[in-house]
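Morning!

This is the sequence you dropped in the shared folder:
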Amino acid sequence: MIGVGRDVVIEAVEADEQVAEIVVSCRLRRGAARRCGQCDRRCGRYDQGEGRRRWRALDAGAMKVFIDAEAPRVSCPEHGVTVAAVPWARHGAGHTRAFDDQVAWLVTHCSKSAVVELMRVAWRSVGAIAGRVVVDARAARDPFDGLVRIGIDELSYRRGHKYLMVVVDHDSGRLVWAATGHDRATLQQFFDLLGAERASRIKLISADAAEWIGDCALAACQNATLCLDPFHICRWASRALDVVRRWAWNVLRHLDLPGHAKQLKNCRYALWKNPQDLTARQAAKLAWIARHNHQLYRAYLLKEQLRLVFQHRGDEAVAMLDAWLAWARRCHIPAFVELYHRIKKHRRGIIAAVTHGLSNGLTESVNTKLRLLTRIAYGFRSTDNLIALCLLDRGSHCPPLPGRTATA
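The structure's back. C-alpha cells below.
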C-alpha cells in the first residue's frame, strides 16, 4: 500500500484515530542503506542528519499515512555531503513516489480545486511535485531523441511581456522543451541542450518570420530547412489590406462623402473573412466595394490570391506565388508593394512551407492548451513549476496511477 519495497523493514505501525493519521516506522536493510540520494552510489556515512523524519504517503481511506524513518547524510565523491536515498521517495521530496505520481496524474486530468481537496495538499506543493516528476521522467528518457521535424513559437504567460519559448515535435505532437524568454539567447539554450549530433538529424523547422529564430535555428541545424508559417504570411496580407481600407476611408471623409465613408467603415469584416464564409449582407458590401472602390477591391483580391497559394502544394504553389509577386510588384498600392518586398525576402521559407506542407498549426494548438495551463498554474512559486506542469501535460511525462501500467 505504501510502496516501500523489499529493501525496507517495517518496524511498527501506529494509528491515531483522533488526528486521523497512520504512522509506519521503517528502516532500510543493510544492502540498501547509505546510498547517495542523487546518484544512488554506495557511500560512507557522514552523520545522522536531522534524525528521523516523515514522508507523506497515499491516504488509507480518510486517514493520512506517513512513513517515519531515519534520514542520515552520506559523503558522496561526486555530490558531496547529501541526504541518503530512500526507495520510497525522490531525493529532497516530502512525499512518497506513489503520492507524487498520483498528484501528477490528477493535475493533468482534474481541476485545480479537485486535486487540492482530494489529496489534501497546498496548490504550491502541487507545483513542486510536478517539477520533481518531470525531472525524473526526462532523466529516464531522452526527450530530444528522434527529433526530425520541430516547430518553434512563443506565448505570453503573464502581462508585462512575459513569454515562454516552446519547441514542439511535429511527428509526435508533444512539447519537447520550454523556457522563459523571448530572444535568441533563450532559443540557443535549447540547441545547446540538443547538441550538434542530434541537431544534425533535424530536417524541417517551422516558425514565424522572426529573423532571430530563423538565424539561430539554421545556424545550429545545418541540415534543416526553415518553413515559414502560412498563417503569419496571410496575416501580413490582412494587415496590408486594412491599411488600404483605412486610407480609402480617410480619402472619402476628406472628399466630403460621409455616406460612402460610413459604408466603407462597416465593410471591415467583409474584407477580412474568407469568401465562402461571408453572410449575404457581407457579400453585398463586398460587391459595393467592387463597384465603387477599385483600388480597395484589388487589394482584397491580392489578399485572397496570396491565401490561395497556401492551399496548393509543390510546383503549382510555387508558380502561384511567383505570379502573385509579379502582380503585387506592379499593383501601385503602397501597402502591397511593401508586402511584396517582405515576401520576396522570405520567399525561400514560404516555398519550403508549401513544398513540405509544414506549418506552425500544431505548435499553435499546443500553445492554446498551454495558455489554459498558465491559468491553472496561478499561485505557483516559480515559472519552473509552470514549465513542469506544461511538460507534464503536453510533453508525455504524465505517470500512470500507482499500481497501474501506462496506457498508450
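Headline: The radius of gyration is 29 Å.

More detail when I'm at my desk.
O.
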